[in-house]
Each structure stands twice: as C-alpha cells, then as structure tokens.
Amino acid sequence: MTPSEAAKSNVYSQNQANDIQAIYDGRRPPHGDHTAAPPIQIFHPIFDEFIHFVNENLQTFYSTLQDVPPVKKGVPHPRYFPYPTSFAAKDGSTTHF
Fold first, then answer.
1. Nearest-angstrom CA–CA distance, 10 and 44
2. CA 57, 59, 64: angle at the middle one, nearest 5?
3. Are 35 and 23 in contact (CB under 8 A)?
4. How far apart are CA 24 and CA 40, in angstroms?
5. Is residue 19 part of a domain?
6. Percentage of residues in the chain with pLDDT exceeding 70?
7. Residue 22 located in a structural domain
8. In this predicted model, what pLDDT tens digit does every residue of 71-90 receive, in sequence order?
9. What is the 3-state secondary structure (H, E, C) of 12-52?
C-alpha cells in the first residue's frame, strides 16, 4: 500500500484496528484496543517538571480570577488594560482609563 493510500480516513480506521500497524495517537479506533499515547513524562524528566509547573501556575491563575471586576459595556476591562491607558477616537477625542 502506498503512503497516499494509507493516509485516507477509511484506511486509517483499518490500520488502527490492527495492533501491529496501530498508531498510538490517542484516537479511539472503531475496533481493537484503545490507542492512548504514552505519557510524555516517560521520555525525559523535564516534561514532568513542565507539567507540574503548568499545573501550579494554572491553579494560581484561576485563584486570582475571583478578584476580577465584572465586564461593563463600553469600558475596557482592567484585566486586559491594567495600567492607565488612552485611546484616540476617529473624531479626535481621547478616552482615558
């Protein structure tokens, strides 16, 4: 089978059903075993450190969301503009916030 034939979606399903040819990409084949990819942490310890770093920072980020003021129509949100900012409108007026 040529690579272009093997790349077609119907052939992909057939290949995934074959344990020898299956690609462990995390997709669920229609038949056969689940093809979950191995965890990236087994390849190098730095990946495990990265995963822990991201999880810790996400928890910190989500805990700070409690202090975010509500969005008001027509007013720039302080989460995106935390410092004093101004915009010039087309009519020449300036908006400060």
1. 35
2. 95
3. yes
4. 12
5. yes
6. 71
7. yes
8. 777 766 666 666 677 777 78
9. HHHHHHCCCCCCCCCCCCCCCCCCCCCCHHHCCHHHHHHHH
In total, the chain counts a number of residues equal to: 97
Instruction: Count structural domains, the chain.
Output: 1
Tell me whether residue 80 is in a domain: no
- Residue 23's domain comprises 3-38
- The residue type at 45: P
Other CB atoms within a 10 A radius of the CB of residue 63 amount to 9
CA trace torsion 90, 94, 95, 97 (10° rounding): 140
How crowded is residue 35: how many other Cβ atoms within 10 Å of its Cβ?
16
- 61 lies in a domain? no
66 has a pLDDT exceeding 80: no
> Residue with structure tokens 């087994």?
42
| Number of other residues whose CB lies within 10 A of the CB of residue 19 | 10
